[in-house]
Design a protein that fits this description.
Layout: E1 5-12, H1 15-24, E2 31-38, E3 56-63, H2 75-91, E4 96-98, E5 102-105, E6 108-120, E7 123-134, H3 151-157, H4 167-189, H5 196-201, E8 209-212, E9 219-226, E10 232-235, E11 240-243, E12 250-252
Parallel strand pairs: 1-2
Antiparallel strand pairs: 2-3, 3-7, 4-5, 5-6, 6-7, 8-9, 8-12, 9-10, 10-11
The structure holds biotin (BTN).
Length: 257
């Protein structure tokens, strides 16, 4: 089982960056770096990720997996399941997963995950799993208003009050504990066979029209679920295609999901 070593910074550039620095100094698998505020938080596809002071979780984990590199894009799906389980387990708030790794509710994003891999001679030297969760946010910039939400906002929407003030710390720990359990099983097989059914049950894109942003030419189809490798199966008029996590992004045709 992963031995988790938690370290906290009030302010940092990016918790993913700090894990990379520590990995380069020889830090062991299981190091978790969290921060109250990131000055240069990063998202997928080169976007930045805002973590306003005290409102959200910014946390990253160092892994040193021995599995073949081809399996490792599934880690991001493992992390999504861990976040979903943690939010439901602690706060009884039901969320869905937008493939591969956004946690959403009512079609709006609550959590994003950035998994980064350092390769050395075709082997993984280390992996950083970085998770950002909107917890106490009350408002978002204009451009995110119809795309983002927070756990407090969803709790209100359910007719409840704010989450407890200590939720960021509590949820961070629960996420990594759930991740450690899932990672143990994943490490035995290198695939998602054990959790595929659970993942598909909470897949927001399931049976919905998606646009696959293939750099050569975007195409559309209906998402049917993931396979054991974490690829999204998309049905077109002609065939059933596999879309590998980490290669292209997928957009909903109607709204964010
Ligand atoms: C995305 O949805 O684009 C991924 C966002 C990932 C943000 C987290 S916050 C903690 C960690 N540190 C970073 O700089 N990014 C990730």
């Amino acid at each position: 089982m992963l031995a988790l070593d938690y370290q906290y910074f009030e302010t940092i550039d990016s918790t993913n960056n700090e894990i990379k620095r520590r990995a380069a100094q020889g830090a062991e698998e299981g190091l978790v770096v969290s921060a109250g505020m990131q000055s240069a938080g990063r998202g997928r596809s080169g976007h930045d990720w805002k973590s306003p002071v005290g409102e959200s979780i910014a946390t990253s984990l160092l892994l040193r997996p021995t599995l073949p590199v081809e399996c490792l894009s599934s880690l991001t799906l493992v992390a999504a399941l861990a976040v979903r389980r943690a939010i439901y387990g602690l706060y009884d708030i039901d969320t869905e997963i937008k493939w591969p790794n956004d946690i959403v509710r009512n079609g709006k994003k609550i959590c994003g995950i950035l998994t980064e891999l350092s390769l050395e001679q075709q082997k993984a030297e280390y992996v950083v799993v970085g998770i950002g969760v909107n917890v106490h946010n009350r408002n978002f910039p204009e451009e995110l208003l119809d795309k983002a939400t927070s756990l407090d906002m969803e709790s209100h929407q359910m007719g409840r009050g704010d989450l407890p003030p200590e939720s960021c710390q509590e949820l961070t720990r629960r996420i990594w504990e759930e991740f450690a359990l899932l990672y143990e099983v994943f490490s035995m097989t290198g695939d998602l066979s054990v959790v595929m059914e659970e993942y598909n049950r909470f897949l927001a894109n399931r049976n919905r029209q998606v646009r696959v942003m293939d750099p050569k030419e975007p195409w559309e189809g209906i998402a049917r679920g993931i396979d054991e490798s974490g690829a999204l199966l998309v049905e077109t008029k002609e065939d059933l295609r596999r879309v590998d996590a980490g290669e292209v992004s997928v957009r909903g045709i109607y709204g964010y999901v």
